[in-house]
Write the structure tokens for this entry.
Amino acid sequence: MRATVKDVARLAGVSPKTVSNVMNGIVPVSGPTRAKVEQAMAELDYVPNLSARGLRNGRSGVIALALPDLGTPYSAEIAHSVVEVAHEQGWSVQIEETGSDPTREYELMSRARSNLIDGLILNPVVLDESAVKVGVALPPVVLLGEVSQKLADRVWVDSVAAARDMTLALGRTGRRRIAVLGAAEGRGSAAAVLRTRGYHAALKELGIARDDSLIIPCEKWSPDAAAKALSAHLDSHPLPEALFCFTDSMAIGALSVLWKRGIRVPDDVAVAGFDDIADAQFAVPSLTTVSFDKRQVAREALRLLTERMVDRQGPQKVVAIDYRIVERQSTSS
Amino acid sequence: MRATVKDVARLAGVSPKTVSNVMNGIVPVSGPTRAKVEQAMAELDYVPNLSARGLRNGRSGVIALALPDLGTPYSAEIAHSVVEVAHEQGWSVQIEETGSDPTREYELMSRARSNLIDGLILNPVVLDESAVKVGVALPPVVLLGEVSQKLADRVWVDSVAAARDMTLALGRTGRRRIAVLGAAEGRGSAAAVLRTRGYHAALKELGIARDDSLIIPCEKWSPDAAAKALSAHLDSHPLPEALFCFTDSMAIGALSVLWKRGIRVPDDVAVAGFDDIADAQFAVPSLTTVSFDKRQVAREALRLLTERMVDRQGPQKVVAIDYRIVERQSTSS
DNA sequence: GGTGGTCATTACATCGATGTAATGTGAGGC
DNA sequence: GCCTCACATTACATCGATGTAATGACCACC
């Protein structure tokens, strides 16, 4: 059986509370006593029971990170950053996936209220009007990405501006028939809507007439969905001069299709992405994209979360992460 | 304040224990009582406190998954599968990264003994003779991948056989100067050693003389490290006829370098990988690789883990996952 | 030597859910 | 009508750590 404070206390010849005092360091403990306790802890190989501590303190030291699909490079890189930064600050991270099933966000909220979790970083996708109901006793929540609602603190990249800048960059290379891949039909995800908006804004600035046949919808933002969508589009449309994919993952699917069709990038068509995932620079050709610091996203999310733990009532905060266009070979002229 | 069993009990006019009985379903509860309790739970929006439950039951419902680096596609896909499968079985998953810092494995073990975690799935890398000390009161542990030691249950793909098969497949296309990328200098990771062994076995079968100038070491198994290693090698060596990269990630780095140098794949050199990450089929050209079912890895790992929770004393179990060579364009002849 | 004050230490209660053992309630049989 | 038996329900203790309030020790000063 594992040792408890009681066992340590008995061995050290002190009371359980003193052992606790040694561990927590709030209440002062005299030198000799501390030494005895520490030796006893070492001797018994004592490890505190976090369930008990969590019950007593009301805090578990665990935060949850909810992402649509850990398997995608973007989610994986975010997860990586969050886990690293959280670890530096002494938090553990519980990971949840919301991807396939919209009800998962609800489940998650419920779980989040179960006291095993001190806070939640949520990257919603499908559900914009999501399960984040404020008012009910939820732990602090920070949202990642483009979300229409103002119910919680949020960290994001300005998609409108970034998409606009990217479109302008493509236009500056002289290409005028600029297609976008990833716009959702009808009402799509918030990110799709915003990036499309930035694209249109840029077209206007460039003096290029809007041509809806250049808008290629793509339900899922994955390489295979992108490949299928682009393939189908190319079967019935002429090749555009540039292709702005709303994520790098889609761009990678697109590059694959273009290569298989013998279409040269960037000679026949320029291709750009969004997110700057690790593989973007190793794509063939290397991928021009919107880059931002995922580590910073993680840092800010955790900062907002911990601030919110202290002040549950303050106003909602929104942090915008800097981005920049990274031009690589896929768009060189 | 959050509702507790006591509040529910009071509202339903029963005792706390009855509420508990309703939730757990072990002790029978009469129909009308159950209905009253359920209504009270709904009314109060009751969510059980998992810290308290964990303290009382000694089990938290959380397992930990420790991976070297969540940011790499391989780890991410494994994590994705484990999280999904675990979720299906009612587990939550806490993710830890061990990557950069070897001491993390120790930290992890200590944390694992803190009762917040019912089991641990560990994918060790650097540390083969790792921190997994049996004997001390650890929760059940399952190791993923190539590990030399026999201290815990394990799920793996037979790297020797797979590397051998892949090398044979490359040889069958008529290519004889087959290089490998990812061998570690001196004593490397277990996987590196085993894959190199399979490669050598295949060369012998093919009647190809061993040529150590075809063994390209690469410390980190990442695209950028692979790109650098391959670049350096090509500067001072002739182009091989085939390049077997010990992971897909390295292969993607390699493809990028080859493309930048104007070397055509597969015409000038065939390239193969290992792992069949999602991006392998969207690589340019699509990547021949060793494929295996990551979902099955997750399923088996969880099966071993849950079995081990029941029987702490049984013999160590090892599960080998089926693999197959998937030939794509990067090695077509 | 006695008293006041400081500071380390202790006993006890508590967090919320649940197993144990005891109590209560009802039906059924004589 | 009484007793037995089965079964639902209850009171209480418990898991391990820690806050609270009280105790104890020790020193300094009058």
Observations:
- Chain A touches chain B through 57 residues (CB under 8 Å).
- Chain A has two domains: 60-156+293-323, 159-292.
- The longest strand of chain A covers residues 62-67.
- Residues 60-156+293-323 of chain A form a domain with the Rossmann fold fold (CATH 3.40.50.2300).
